[in-house]
Design brief:
Layout: E1 2-7, E2 22-31, E3 34-42, E4 48-53, E5 61-65, E6 67-74, E7 81-89, E8 95-103, E9 114-124, E10 142-151, E11 158-163, E12 170-176, E13 181-187, E14 190-196, E15 204-214, H1 216-219, E16 227-241, E17 249-259, E18 267-270, E19 274-277, E20 281-295, E21 304-314, E22 328-342
Parallel strand pairs: 1-11
Antiparallel strand pairs: 1-8, 2-3, 3-6, 4-5, 4-7, 7-8, 9-10, 11-22, 12-15, 13-14, 14-22, 15-21, 16-20, 16-22, 17-18, 17-19, 17-21
C-alpha cells in the first residue's frame, strides 16, 4: 500500500483586491535524490511570488511566477518521505498554499502480492524399437518443467489518499445574500459555519465547498475500471435557534461527492441533517461515518474530484423580525476522509 497526502491551495475572493491566486501542482516525482516539480500559477493581477519549501530543512526558494513553471532540488542522503509545500502570494497579500508528499525511495518493508504463473511441459516419451540381428535400441523418456514468478509492484494494486481540509485544492466560502451575517471558513481540521439573521428579514445561507483532486497519472496505472472507495469519519457540533414567529427555521447538513470527466456523480455520502422550526432550539453533537464506493467508468479520464459541501441555513419566515429577535445556525464539522483506489483484478 502506498500512502499519499494531497495538499494544494485554496482560492476565493477578497475584499482587499481581486480573486486570490490559484496554484496547482502538475508533477512531483524524483529521479534518485533529485526532486522534479512542475506547477501552474494563475492570478488576475499578474505574476505572484512563490516560495517552495522542499521539506528537508533547507531554506525555501522564492520565485516570481506567472503561468507554468518548474524547479528541481537535490536531497541529502537518508531522506525518504518529505512534504513539498508551495506558498503563492499576490500583490494584495492574498496567500494560497499547495503541496504534496514526495517519496524518494519506497520503504524496504513494503511488498505486494505475488502472482505465480507456472507453465509445465508434459512428460513425453518417445520410443522407437529397431529389431536387428544383434540389438534393440530404445530412446529414454524426457521431462521438461519451467516455472516463472512475477511480483506486481504495490503501486499497481492500490492507492490510498488521506484528504485534509488544510490541503484542499479549492475552497469556496459562500455567504448569501451579500451583507448577511455569517462565516463559512475552514480552520485547521474543521469547518466553522455560522448564519445569523440578527434582525435581517431575508434567508441566509453560509456554505463551505471544499474540493480535492486525485490526478489521473496516479490512478491510471491501476488498470481499467479501478474501484473507488471514499470513507468519511466525522464529528460535528451544531447549535440551532429561531425566533417564535411563523415560518422560522434553521438547518445544518453536509454531503461528500465524487466526480470526473466521464461521470458527474460517481457516488455520494451525506451526513446527518439537523433542522428545527419556529421557536425551537437544538444543541447536538455526534460522531459518525459516511461514504460510497463504485468502479470508475471504462472511459474515465482526467482527475477524480472529491467535493465536500457543508451548509448552515436560516429561513426568512413569513413575518418581519421583531426587535431583538434572531435565528441562528452555528456548526463545527471535523472530517477525516480516506480515498482508496483499488486495481480491478478481473480486468
Amino acid at each position: 500500500m502506498v500512502l499519499f497526502v494531497l495538499v494544494a491551495g485554496a482560492c476565493g475572493g477578497s475584499e482587499a483586491g481581486g480573486l486570490a491566486p490559484t496554484i496547482v501542482i502538475t508533477r512531483l516525482d524524483a529521479d534518485g535524490p533529485t526532486a522534479i516539480l512542475e506547477f501552474t500559477v494563475e492570478d488576475d493581477s499578474g505574476p505572484v511570488t512563490v516560495a517552495i519549501d522542499w521539506g528537508d530543512g533547507s531554506e525555501p526558494e522564492t520565485f516570481l511566477v506567472s503561468g507554468e513553471s518548474a524547479a528541481t532540488h537535490d536531497y541529502p542522503p537518508g531522506v525518504t518521505d518529505v512534504v513539498v509545500t508551495l506558498v503563492a502570494t499576490d500583490e494584495d497579500e492574498q496567500e494560497v498554499r499547495a503541496g504534496r508528499v514526495l517519496t524518494l525511495s519506497p520503504p524496504s518493508t513494503t511488498t505486494g502480492p505475488t502472482t505465480t504463473i507456472t507453465s509445465t511441459t508434459s512428460t513425453t516419451t518417445s520410443s522407437s524399437t529397431t529389431t536387428t540381428s544383434s540389438a534393440t535400441t530404445s530412446s529414454p523418456p524426457t521431462t521438461s518443467t519451467a516455472t516463472t514468478t512475477t511480483t506486481l509492484p504495490p503501486e499497481a494494486l492500490e492507492q490510498v489518499y488521506e484528504l485534509r481540509l488544510q490541503d484542499a485544492d479549492f475552497v469556496d466560502e459562500l455567504i448569501s445574500p451579500p451583507g448577511a451575517e455569517g462565516t463559512a471558513a475552514p480552520s485547521g481540521g474543521e469547518i466553522d459555519l455560522e448564519a445569523e439573521t440578527g434582525g435581517f428579514d431575508g434567508g441566509i445561507v453560509a456554505q463551505s465547498r471544499i474540493q480535492w483532486l486525485i490526478p489521473e497519472e496516479a490512478w491510471a496505472l491501476l488498470g481499467p475500471e479501478p474501484r473507488l472507495s471514499v470513507i468519511m469519519d466525522y464529528e460535528y457540533t451544531v447549535v440551532l435557534s429561531t425566533g417564535p414567529n411563523p415560518g422560522r427555521a434553521a438547518g445544518f447538513d453536509f454531503v461528500i461527492v465524487g466526480a470526473n470527466a466521464a461521470e458527474p456523480n460517481l457516488g455520494e455520502g451525506s451526513g446527518a441533517v439537523v433542522t428545527i422550526g419556529a421557536g425551537d432550539v437544538a444543541n447536538q453533537s455526534d460522531v459518525d461515518r459516511t461514504g460510497f464506493g463504485t468502479p470508475l467508468p471504462a472511459n474515465a479520464s482526467g482527475p477524480i474530484r472529491i467535493t465536500l459541501v457543508a451548509t448552515c441555513s436560516v429561513s426568512p419566515g413569513t413575518t418581519p423580525f421583531q426587535i431583538g429577535e434572531t435565528s441562528t445556525c452555528r456548526a463545527d464539522l471535523r472530517p477525516t476522509i480516506r480515498v482508496t483506489l483499488t486495481r480491478n483484478e478481473g480486468a
